[in-house]
Amino acid sequence: MTRTMEPPRHDTADRAAGPQERVDAWLTRFEAALKAQDVPAASALFATDSYWRDLVSFTWNIKTVEGRDEIEEMLRARLADTAPRDFRTREVPVEADGVVSAWLEFETATGRGVGHLRLRADDDPGDDAGTSEAGDRCWTLLTTLQEIRGHEERRGTRRDRGAVHGSGAVTQTWGERRAAEERELGYERQPFVVVVGGGQGGIALGARLRQLGVPALVLDRHARPGDQWRGRYKSLCLHDPVWYDHLPYLPFPDNWPVFAPKDKIGDWLEMYTSVMEVPYWGSTTCRSASFDEESKQWTVEVDRDGEAVTLTPRHLVLATGMSGMPNVPDFPGSDRFLGDQHHSSEHPGPDAYAGRKAVVIGANNSAHDICKALYEVGADVTMVQRSSTHIVKSESLMELGLGDLYSERALAAGMTTEKADLTFASLPYRIMHEFQIPIYDKIRERDRDFYDRLEKAGFAHDWGDDGSGLFMKYLRRGSGYYIDVGASELVADGKIHLAAGEVRELTENTVVLADGTELEADLVVYATGYGSMNGWAADLIGQDVADKVGKCWGLGSDTTKDPGPWEGEQRNMWKPTRQEALWFHGGNLHQSRHYSLYLALQLKARHERIPTPVFGLQEVHHLS
Question: Comparing 177-324+533-608 with 334-526, is the CATH topology the same?
Answer without folding.
Answer: yes
